[in-house]
Write a structure and sequence with these properties.
The protein has helices spanning 21-31, 128-139, 158-175, 183-200, 206-216, 221-232, 239-246, 250-260, 265-285, 293-299, 305-316, 320-324, and strands at residues 4-5, 14-18, 35-39, 47-54, 58-63, 68-72, 78-86, 89-93, 96-98, 103-105, 111-115, 120-127. The protein is an alpha+beta fold and 330 residues long.
Length: 330
Protein backbone atom coordinates (compact mmCIF):
# COMPACT_ATOMS: atom_id res chain seq x y z
CA UNK A 1 0.00 0.00 0.00
CA UNK A 2 1.23 3.48 -0.84
CA UNK A 3 2.33 5.55 2.13
CA UNK A 4 2.70 9.26 2.65
CA UNK A 5 4.05 10.81 5.84
CA UNK A 6 5.45 14.17 6.84
CA UNK A 7 6.90 15.28 10.15
CA UNK A 8 5.25 18.71 10.03
CA UNK A 9 1.59 19.04 9.10
CA UNK A 10 0.36 21.78 6.78
CA UNK A 11 -3.21 22.57 5.81
CA UNK A 12 -4.43 20.21 3.13
CA UNK A 13 -1.77 17.58 3.80
CA UNK A 14 -2.46 13.91 4.08
CA UNK A 15 -0.12 13.74 7.05
CA UNK A 16 -0.06 9.96 6.90
CA UNK A 17 -1.73 7.33 4.73
CA UNK A 18 -0.64 3.72 4.88
CA UNK A 19 -0.28 0.54 6.89
CA UNK A 20 2.90 1.10 8.92
CA UNK A 21 1.86 1.42 12.60
CA UNK A 22 5.26 2.70 13.75
CA UNK A 23 5.25 5.60 11.30
CA UNK A 24 1.63 6.45 12.07
CA UNK A 25 2.37 6.41 15.80
CA UNK A 26 5.22 8.88 15.30
CA UNK A 27 3.14 11.45 13.41
CA UNK A 28 0.21 11.15 15.84
CA UNK A 29 2.52 11.67 18.82
CA UNK A 30 3.94 14.75 17.11
CA UNK A 31 0.49 16.19 16.43
CA UNK A 32 -1.02 15.43 19.84
CA UNK A 33 0.71 13.90 22.86
CA UNK A 34 2.61 10.65 23.52
CA UNK A 35 0.15 7.78 23.77
CA UNK A 36 -0.09 4.03 23.34
CA UNK A 37 -1.68 2.66 20.17
CA UNK A 38 -2.58 -1.04 20.07
CA UNK A 39 -4.01 -2.66 16.94
CA UNK A 40 -6.61 -5.13 18.22
CA UNK A 41 -8.65 -5.80 15.06
CA UNK A 42 -8.39 -8.51 12.46
CA UNK A 43 -7.97 -6.10 9.59
CA UNK A 44 -4.61 -4.65 8.66
CA UNK A 45 -3.96 -1.00 9.45
CA UNK A 46 -5.25 1.27 6.68
CA UNK A 47 -4.81 4.70 8.23
CA UNK A 48 -5.71 8.13 6.88
CA UNK A 49 -4.64 11.17 8.90
CA UNK A 50 -5.39 14.47 7.14
CA UNK A 51 -4.74 18.05 8.27
CA UNK A 52 -7.68 20.21 7.21
CA UNK A 53 -6.29 23.37 8.79
CA UNK A 54 -3.14 24.16 10.75
CA UNK A 55 -2.92 27.64 12.26
CA UNK A 56 -3.40 28.95 15.76
CA UNK A 57 -5.86 26.09 16.04
CA UNK A 58 -5.89 22.91 13.95
CA UNK A 59 -8.52 20.67 12.36
CA UNK A 60 -7.96 17.04 11.41
CA UNK A 61 -9.66 13.94 10.04
CA UNK A 62 -8.45 10.54 11.28
CA UNK A 63 -9.29 6.90 10.63
CA UNK A 64 -7.34 3.71 11.32
CA UNK A 65 -9.10 1.16 9.13
CA UNK A 66 -8.89 -1.43 11.91
CA UNK A 67 -9.87 -1.79 15.57
CA UNK A 68 -7.52 0.25 17.75
CA UNK A 69 -7.14 0.91 21.48
CA UNK A 70 -5.53 4.21 22.48
CA UNK A 71 -4.06 4.50 25.97
CA UNK A 72 -2.43 7.48 27.70
CA UNK A 73 1.29 7.98 28.18
CA UNK A 74 1.09 11.68 28.95
CA UNK A 75 -2.05 13.84 29.26
CA UNK A 76 -2.60 16.29 26.38
CA UNK A 77 -1.38 19.87 26.56
CA UNK A 78 -4.14 21.16 24.31
CA UNK A 79 -7.91 20.92 24.04
CA UNK A 80 -8.96 18.10 21.72
CA UNK A 81 -12.53 18.59 20.56
CA UNK A 82 -14.21 15.82 18.58
CA UNK A 83 -16.96 17.50 16.57
CA UNK A 84 -18.28 14.36 14.86
CA UNK A 85 -17.57 10.78 13.90
CA UNK A 86 -18.85 7.82 11.91
CA UNK A 87 -18.56 4.22 13.11
CA UNK A 88 -18.47 2.81 16.62
CA UNK A 89 -16.06 4.23 19.17
CA UNK A 90 -15.88 4.70 22.95
CA UNK A 91 -14.06 7.15 25.18
CA UNK A 92 -13.16 7.34 28.89
CA UNK A 93 -12.05 10.65 30.39
CA UNK A 94 -10.51 10.35 33.85
CA UNK A 95 -12.07 6.87 34.01
CA UNK A 96 -15.60 8.11 33.27
CA UNK A 97 -17.41 6.87 30.11
CA UNK A 98 -17.93 9.85 27.78
CA UNK A 99 -19.63 10.13 24.40
CA UNK A 100 -16.96 9.83 21.73
CA UNK A 101 -18.31 12.88 19.96
CA UNK A 102 -19.13 15.61 20.34
CA UNK A 103 -16.73 15.91 23.24
CA UNK A 104 -13.89 18.05 24.53
CA UNK A 105 -10.83 16.70 26.36
CA UNK A 106 -9.04 19.36 28.38
CA UNK A 107 -5.26 19.54 28.99
CA UNK A 108 -4.01 17.34 31.80
CA UNK A 109 -6.86 14.80 31.68
CA UNK A 110 -6.21 11.08 31.18
CA UNK A 111 -8.05 9.65 28.19
CA UNK A 112 -8.49 6.14 26.82
CA UNK A 113 -10.40 5.23 23.69
CA UNK A 114 -11.34 2.42 21.38
CA UNK A 115 -12.09 2.78 17.66
CA UNK A 116 -13.59 0.14 15.41
CA UNK A 117 -12.35 -0.40 11.86
CA UNK A 118 -15.02 1.84 10.31
CA UNK A 119 -14.58 4.80 12.65
CA UNK A 120 -13.59 8.14 11.18
CA UNK A 121 -13.56 11.28 13.27
CA UNK A 122 -13.12 15.01 12.74
CA UNK A 123 -11.70 17.13 15.53
CA UNK A 124 -10.16 20.45 16.47
CA UNK A 125 -7.06 21.09 18.59
CA UNK A 126 -6.87 24.35 20.56
CA UNK A 127 -3.68 25.16 22.51
CA UNK A 128 -4.20 25.98 26.18
CA UNK A 129 -2.59 29.40 25.75
CA UNK A 130 -5.42 30.54 23.44
CA UNK A 131 -8.07 29.66 26.01
CA UNK A 132 -6.00 31.37 28.71
CA UNK A 133 -5.77 34.48 26.52
CA UNK A 134 -9.54 34.46 26.02
CA UNK A 135 -10.08 34.25 29.78
CA UNK A 136 -7.64 37.12 30.29
CA UNK A 137 -9.56 39.20 27.74
CA UNK A 138 -12.79 38.61 29.63
CA UNK A 139 -11.51 38.95 33.20
CA UNK A 140 -8.25 40.88 32.93
CA UNK A 141 -6.31 38.04 34.56
CA UNK A 142 -4.61 34.87 33.31
CA UNK A 143 -6.22 31.80 34.97
CA UNK A 144 -4.06 30.19 37.63
CA UNK A 145 -5.30 26.69 36.76
CA UNK A 146 -6.19 24.97 33.51
CA UNK A 147 -9.72 25.70 32.36
CA UNK A 148 -11.37 22.25 32.35
CA UNK A 149 -14.46 21.88 30.17
CA UNK A 150 -17.26 19.40 30.78
CA UNK A 151 -16.21 16.52 28.53
CA UNK A 152 -19.59 15.67 26.97
CA UNK A 153 -20.94 18.33 24.60
CA UNK A 154 -24.75 18.35 24.54
CA UNK A 155 -26.13 19.47 21.20
CA UNK A 156 -29.55 20.06 22.78
CA UNK A 157 -28.09 23.01 24.70
CA UNK A 158 -28.65 26.03 22.38
CA UNK A 159 -25.25 27.59 23.08
CA UNK A 160 -23.36 24.32 22.60
CA UNK A 161 -25.33 23.37 19.51
CA UNK A 162 -24.63 26.76 17.95
CA UNK A 163 -20.91 26.45 18.71
CA UNK A 164 -20.74 22.97 17.18
CA UNK A 165 -22.44 24.30 14.04
CA UNK A 166 -19.80 27.01 13.84
CA UNK A 167 -16.95 24.53 14.43
CA UNK A 168 -18.25 22.14 11.77
CA UNK A 169 -18.62 24.98 9.30
CA UNK A 170 -15.03 25.98 10.03
CA UNK A 171 -13.75 22.43 9.47
CA UNK A 172 -15.83 21.92 6.34
CA UNK A 173 -14.68 25.23 4.91
CA UNK A 174 -11.08 24.25 5.63
CA UNK A 175 -11.61 20.85 3.96
CA UNK A 176 -12.85 22.60 0.82
CA UNK A 177 -9.77 24.84 0.69
CA UNK A 178 -11.56 28.16 1.16
CA UNK A 179 -9.70 29.16 4.33
CA UNK A 180 -6.37 29.09 2.52
CA UNK A 181 -7.63 31.89 0.31
CA UNK A 182 -8.84 34.18 3.07
CA UNK A 183 -6.49 34.96 6.00
CA UNK A 184 -9.04 37.45 7.32
CA UNK A 185 -11.66 34.71 7.58
CA UNK A 186 -9.15 32.41 9.27
CA UNK A 187 -8.27 34.95 11.96
CA UNK A 188 -11.94 35.73 12.60
CA UNK A 189 -12.98 32.09 12.73
CA UNK A 190 -10.18 31.10 15.11
CA UNK A 191 -10.84 33.97 17.51
CA UNK A 192 -14.57 33.41 17.41
CA UNK A 193 -14.26 29.67 18.05
CA UNK A 194 -12.04 30.12 21.09
CA UNK A 195 -13.96 32.98 22.71
CA UNK A 196 -17.40 31.54 22.07
CA UNK A 197 -16.37 28.12 23.43
CA UNK A 198 -16.12 29.70 26.87
CA UNK A 199 -19.72 30.85 26.57
CA UNK A 200 -21.03 27.68 24.93
CA UNK A 201 -19.64 24.79 27.00
CA UNK A 202 -19.72 24.47 30.82
CA UNK A 203 -16.26 24.67 32.38
CA UNK A 204 -14.39 25.09 35.63
CA UNK A 205 -14.22 28.90 35.43
CA UNK A 206 -17.84 29.50 34.42
CA UNK A 207 -18.79 30.85 37.86
CA UNK A 208 -15.81 33.20 37.95
CA UNK A 209 -16.58 34.54 34.48
CA UNK A 210 -20.24 34.99 35.39
CA UNK A 211 -19.24 36.86 38.58
CA UNK A 212 -17.09 39.15 36.46
CA UNK A 213 -19.95 39.76 34.06
CA UNK A 214 -22.41 40.27 36.90
CA UNK A 215 -20.12 42.77 38.59
CA UNK A 216 -19.84 44.76 35.38
CA UNK A 217 -23.07 44.55 33.42
CA UNK A 218 -25.17 41.61 34.59
CA UNK A 219 -24.84 37.84 33.99
CA UNK A 220 -23.57 36.98 30.53
CA UNK A 221 -24.73 39.81 28.25
CA UNK A 222 -22.39 38.74 25.44
CA UNK A 223 -23.46 35.11 25.84
CA UNK A 224 -27.14 36.10 25.69
CA UNK A 225 -26.49 38.31 22.67
CA UNK A 226 -24.61 35.55 20.82
CA UNK A 227 -27.37 33.03 21.53
CA UNK A 228 -30.01 35.50 20.33
CA UNK A 229 -28.09 36.13 17.10
CA UNK A 230 -27.63 32.41 16.43
CA UNK A 231 -31.31 31.64 17.07
CA UNK A 232 -32.65 34.60 15.08
CA UNK A 233 -30.13 35.02 12.27
CA UNK A 234 -32.81 34.26 9.65
CA UNK A 235 -35.06 37.07 10.96
CA UNK A 236 -34.76 40.87 10.64
CA UNK A 237 -32.66 41.92 13.65
CA UNK A 238 -31.35 45.32 14.75
CA UNK A 239 -28.63 46.14 17.24
CA UNK A 240 -31.41 47.34 19.54
CA UNK A 241 -33.04 43.91 19.36
CA UNK A 242 -29.74 42.26 20.30
CA UNK A 243 -29.17 44.65 23.19
CA UNK A 244 -32.70 44.03 24.47
CA UNK A 245 -32.12 40.27 24.40
CA UNK A 246 -28.82 40.77 26.23
CA UNK A 247 -30.57 43.01 28.78
CA UNK A 248 -28.07 45.87 28.42
CA UNK A 249 -27.95 49.14 26.53
CA UNK A 250 -26.69 49.36 22.96
CA UNK A 251 -23.49 51.21 23.91
CA UNK A 252 -22.73 48.74 26.69
CA UNK A 253 -23.29 45.81 24.34
CA UNK A 254 -21.05 47.29 21.67
CA UNK A 255 -18.30 47.96 24.20
CA UNK A 256 -18.56 44.42 25.59
CA UNK A 257 -18.38 42.85 22.12
CA UNK A 258 -15.32 44.93 21.23
CA UNK A 259 -13.62 44.06 24.53
CA UNK A 260 -14.41 40.33 24.53
CA UNK A 261 -14.59 39.39 20.85
CA UNK A 262 -12.97 42.28 19.01
CA UNK A 263 -16.00 42.83 16.74
CA UNK A 264 -19.37 44.61 16.82
CA UNK A 265 -22.66 42.80 17.55
CA UNK A 266 -23.91 43.40 14.01
CA UNK A 267 -20.71 42.05 12.52
CA UNK A 268 -21.10 38.94 14.64
CA UNK A 269 -24.67 38.58 13.38
CA UNK A 270 -23.46 38.96 9.80
CA UNK A 271 -20.83 36.26 10.32
CA UNK A 272 -23.46 33.90 11.75
CA UNK A 273 -25.67 34.57 8.73
CA UNK A 274 -22.82 34.02 6.31
CA UNK A 275 -21.93 30.76 8.04
CA UNK A 276 -25.54 29.60 7.68
CA UNK A 277 -25.63 30.61 4.02
CA UNK A 278 -22.31 28.87 3.43
CA UNK A 279 -23.60 25.64 4.97
CA UNK A 280 -26.71 25.81 2.74
CA UNK A 281 -24.64 26.42 -0.40
CA UNK A 282 -22.42 23.45 0.46
CA UNK A 283 -25.58 21.38 0.86
CA UNK A 284 -26.66 22.36 -2.66
CA UNK A 285 -23.17 21.59 -4.03
CA UNK A 286 -23.17 18.16 -2.37
CA UNK A 287 -26.69 17.29 -3.47
CA UNK A 288 -28.11 17.33 0.07
CA UNK A 289 -30.33 20.36 -0.62
CA UNK A 290 -31.92 22.25 -3.48
CA UNK A 291 -32.40 25.93 -4.17
CA UNK A 292 -30.78 28.96 -5.74
CA UNK A 293 -28.15 31.38 -4.48
CA UNK A 294 -30.77 34.14 -4.36
CA UNK A 295 -33.06 31.97 -2.21
CA UNK A 296 -30.22 31.17 0.19
CA UNK A 297 -29.18 34.82 0.41
CA UNK A 298 -32.74 35.97 1.10
CA UNK A 299 -33.25 33.24 3.70
CA UNK A 300 -30.22 34.47 5.65
CA UNK A 301 -31.02 38.17 5.50
CA UNK A 302 -29.11 39.31 2.39
CA UNK A 303 -31.72 40.66 -0.03
CA UNK A 304 -29.10 42.53 -2.07
CA UNK A 305 -27.26 39.96 -4.17
CA UNK A 306 -24.19 42.13 -4.82
CA UNK A 307 -23.70 42.85 -1.10
CA UNK A 308 -24.11 39.17 -0.26
CA UNK A 309 -21.54 38.19 -2.89
CA UNK A 310 -19.06 40.77 -1.63
CA UNK A 311 -19.40 39.79 2.04
CA UNK A 312 -19.33 36.07 1.23
CA UNK A 313 -16.22 36.38 -0.91
CA UNK A 314 -14.48 38.45 1.76
CA UNK A 315 -15.13 35.76 4.38
CA UNK A 316 -14.66 32.59 2.33
CA UNK A 317 -12.28 33.65 -0.42
CA UNK A 318 -14.64 32.66 -3.24
CA UNK A 319 -17.96 33.68 -4.76
CA UNK A 320 -21.19 31.89 -3.80
CA UNK A 321 -21.47 30.56 -7.34
CA UNK A 322 -18.06 28.89 -7.00
CA UNK A 323 -19.18 27.13 -3.83
CA UNK A 324 -22.33 25.84 -5.52
CA UNK A 325 -20.25 24.48 -8.41
CA UNK A 326 -17.78 22.81 -6.06
CA UNK A 327 -17.19 19.13 -6.63
CA UNK A 328 -18.19 17.22 -3.48
CA UNK A 329 -15.29 15.55 -1.65
CA UNK A 330 -14.81 11.91 -2.57
Amino acid sequence: MEENAESTAKAGDVVYAGDNPDRLHIVLNQAFTPHGMDLVGRRSLDADFTALHVGRIAAYDLSYGTDVEVTPVRPPEQYVIRIGHAGRASLDVQGDPTPFSPSVVSPGLVVTGRWDADTRTRFLCIPRRLVDQAVRTQTGEVPEKTVVFEAAMREDRPETGAWLHLARTFARTAANGALAQSPQAVAHFEQLLVHSLLAAQPHSMASALDRDRTHTYGPGPVRRAMTFCEENAHRPVSVGDIAAAARVGVRTLQAEFRRRLGITPMRYLRQVRLAGAHADLLGIAEGRATGTIAEVANRWGFPRRRYFTTMYERMYGRRPSETVREKPPA
